[in-house]
Model the fold of this input.
Amino acid sequence: MTNINILSPHVADMIAAGEVVERPASVIKELVENSIDAGADSITIEIKNGGSSMIRITDNGSGMSPEDAGIAFMRHATSKLHDEYGLDSISTMGFRGEALAAISAVSRIDMVTREQGAEQGTRVVLEAGDIQSMEECGCPYGTTITVRDLFYNTPARRKFLKTERSETTASTQTAVRCALSRPDISIHYIKDGSEEFFTPGDGDSLSGMYAIFGRDFANKMLSCSGSNDKVSVRGYVSSPAACRGNRAYQYFFCNNRYIRSPLLQAAVEQAYENSMLVGHYPACCLYIDISYGAVDVNVHPTKTEVKFMEEKKVFDAVYHAALAAIQKENLLSVSTTAPSAAVQPSETVSASSFRPSSGAVSADAFRPRYEDSPARSYRNTSAAREEEAPVPFAFSGSQTAEQTSMDGFSPAAPQPAAPETQNKRSSSDVPPFRMVGEVMNTYILVQQDEKLIIIDKHACHERIIFDRLLTEDRSVMSQILMVPVIVKTDEETATLLEENSALLAELGFELEPYGDNSHIIRGVPADMYESDVTAAFEEICQQLKDHRTVDLEARKTNILKTVACKAAIKAGWKTDVRELFVLAEAVVSQQIKYCPHGRPVAVVYTREDLDKEFKRIV
Ligand code: ADP
Ligand code: MG
Done:
């Protein structure tokens, strides 16, 4: 009997699709990157219904010859890398030849493309990766790719999509990042038929911000630049007076690629110390240029994390550039209000002249604070998070979601739900196991070797979310509530909420005082179910009261426990088999043992235990 199958290229593409294409936003990112690589200076992004029914990217780039158009959707088809020697000097956004294959495997595609100078264009239509038709057609130079019905042939993945609203938000975020990443390219973004923004592509990121965020926003940005022998920084940071209640407007680009970076975040925020209200965060759009060798982009197309070889140099460059921009503004306002001071704007003014109370800032003075800040966890967590990040725990409304029965999951066919999840980890991490089923919509039964494992799905999921939140090296993502919630508390709690507003903001809660000891909650952590907001909030208020004396980290941990609990699937809910599978994997691989409150996530019965129970042995 054979147990090992070589996957067909088609199945392999569908699995790869899970890595490259998580949601509509990732499709947008990949396609826009292709347009950028094709040298386009004008790109239009259109989406409908959050991108799940349609995404269309139109560019005026190089276009493709009919031959290339035919093979572009094959796995490992790339024009950007020829052999392993090219790997060190990649300057294009893509090079693995995976994106088109992966996207086409899980959607319906219509592409028209015409090579610059060619007489005719080519139209290719694909369904689930198979070419349906290919013909000559008339079209402008460049390429238009329309992706329809994403995940239509992988229903389980489609179910992992969040609400249309959150997919739209994520798609818009991606469009914004693409647009800001390349101010020299004009980007037009159209959402459900209406124009959201249109950047001019004049090379100045301030024009881009003006087009995207509006005049008021752009007017409050300060130009910022600086460099040392390793790094150069340019872009804009917000005037201290225009800082905001969250980090939503912090954009960093490394070599024109959008990145997340707690290091850069800390560097910018440090520059605002003493000039910004507590609980506020600067907005910024900063471009870091660094030699390709000095940064490890981890050569994975979906990663936005980078590792700088010389972190201190990068930190210093950003810190000093931001600080100089703030000081320059102070200086300008000083000189307008007190002309007699006769100071000339200059980049070289020392910090001490503006911050008499804190004295000059030396590199050493801020470094230790940065080391001590929570951001330090970014150092060791990336490996762990790579494993965790893709775990698709978007169990939106599982209790009402269409029921997935366990029937298709008989012992003879345990694989259907497995490929995607197994693909995430190296197979050695997860010992082989068999899903037996779920009982009472609460407990998952798993057999591994000669053991029966019973898993509490809520406790298990809670732990996974908690671990992810805890190791997350950035603020927790927030979701804006459709209907803001107003909570009235006693005076003591209201004061505590205000005192902890920075912490709450970092954890994804957006709230403002609303007078008379009330607060209005506008946003909550992205994972949390909206129906749980009030309950979660009450719990958190109680925790703040109970733990007011403990240190910040402990308060944070307690709040995260509540968030994890309210974001986890609940006992009694219907849960998709795939989701159960991911939970079972986490337990079997011994990644998790206890829920954040210390309860076990699973109980184990050995054959011996059962034999004893049935008096087969004594
Ligand atoms: P990669 O970008 O890693 O090479 P993709 O699967 O994203 O892989 O694209 C495969 C190939 O298709 C690219 O190498 C490029 O030659 C071609 N291609 C894709 N999109 C475009 C486009 N918008 N314009 C021109 N060529 C394109
Ligand atoms: Mg690509």
Summary: Residues 30, 33-34, 94, 99 surround magnesium ion (ligand 2) (CB under 6 Å). Residues 333-427 have pLDDT under 50 and may be disordered. The domain at 9-198 is CATH 3.30.565.10 (Heat Shock Protein 90).
